[in-house]
Amino acid sequence: MKARLAFFVFCLFAASTNAQVTKVDDVKKLLSTENKDTVAWVHGGMINVGINQGFIHNWPPGGELASLAVNGVFNGYLVHYCHNWVWSNNLDMNYGLNYVYSNNFVPRKVDDRIDFTSKYGSQMKKNKGLFYTALFNMKSQFTKGFDYSQPRWDTMPTSGLLSPAYLTLAAGIEYRKGTNFTLFLSPIAARATFASATYTKLSPQGAFGIPYGKTSRYEFGAYFTTRYMVELTKMMTFNTRLDLYSNYLAKDSKDNNGNPKKDNPGNIQVLWDNLITWKATKWLGLTIGCTVAYSNDNPYSKTVGTTTTDKNQPGAGLGWVQFKEAFTLGLVRKF
């Protein structure tokens, strides 16, 4: 009798637990596309860790004797709803290393990024989709960066942890449709860039938009950012993000060598992120990421030279445009 009673209680507990999980999942799915008056925490995201290894011996076509590439991608969000208030947080992190035999397996960085955004908004009474919102954004990297084309690249890092660090603080209006779509516009956005003088002294133009020898730069302007996430299929999702920034204080200047630098508020800084995630199984999948950036703060160059007098080295020919693409196949976990 006691065994039957215990079994019955266990069944009730299991059923109630399953119902609670289902209810939480339903609320999370509803809040992803709708604005509801509720008190709840909603979170989601993806972790992908991929490894690519190769080895050849006496191989006629040739190639690298041994190689290993490791790449990790994290994309997550955490949102707290409290009636007419919304606190949303997004964190994007990427890191990748490449090891090859011809380089004595000294790791070379192929990806490195930290990007965190936090927004706190109050819903307008007359429009459920609009919020008065304050925003904070921070961009930086984990480890030192190097120009591997240089002969002694390991002795001359070009960047490091929090060098640069880009901080943006803005107040404006946000349109939200759940957690899947947001659009924020601010006419008053302050931006600060920090970096060690070790890196800003590397060239007469300075680095990261910071003047030669200085460690910081301050801007004030207008900021626009939008995020959109959509499930293309049950196994595939697409995330995109667009950031635009116009510096009201931008003006023509000169570098340390007296060379003129043209700038004005119309030189809008652009960051466009795209990420596709596909899950083949519960744990196996792939991500394809593509980032395009434009900034007048980076010196324009059709060629890349090892010195200021060497103008004959081949370059990418993209001028101020920056481009990055990453493909990761490996373990994927959504949450």
Can you give a write-up of this model?
It contains 2 helices and 16 strands. By secondary structure, it is mainly β. It folds into 2 domains: 1-31; 39-334, Outer membrane phospholipase (ompla), Chain C. The strands form 3 sheets. Strands 1-2-3-4-5-8-9-10-11-14-15-16 form a 12-stranded antiparallel barrel. Strands 6-7 form a two-stranded antiparallel ribbon. Strand 3 and strand 4 form a beta hairpin. It is flat and about 70 Å long.
CATH fold topology of the largest domain:
Outer membrane phospholipase (ompla), Chain C
Quote the beta fraction: over 45%
Strand order of the largest sheet: 1-2-3-4-5-8-9-10-11-14-15-16
Gyration radius (Cα, Å) is 24 Å
Tell me the distance between the termini. 41 Å
> Which structural class fits the helix and strand makeup?
mainly beta
Main sheet record: 12 strands, antiparallel, barrel
Order of helices and strands: HEEEEEEEEEHEEEEEEE
Helicity range of the residues? Answer: 10-25%
What low-confidence regions span 5 or more consecutive residues with pLDDT below 50?
1-24, 303-318
What is the strand tally?
Answer: 16
Provide the CATH architecture of the largest domain: Beta Barrel
- In round numbers, the mean pLDDT is 82
CATH top level label of the largest domain: Mainly Beta
Number of helices: 2
- Globally, the shape reads flat
How many domain regions? 2
For this entry, give a set of tags:
single chain, 335 residues, mainly beta, Outer membrane phospholipase (ompla), Chain C, 2 domains, twelve-stranded antiparallel barrel, two-stranded antiparallel sheet, 2 helices, 53% strand, flat
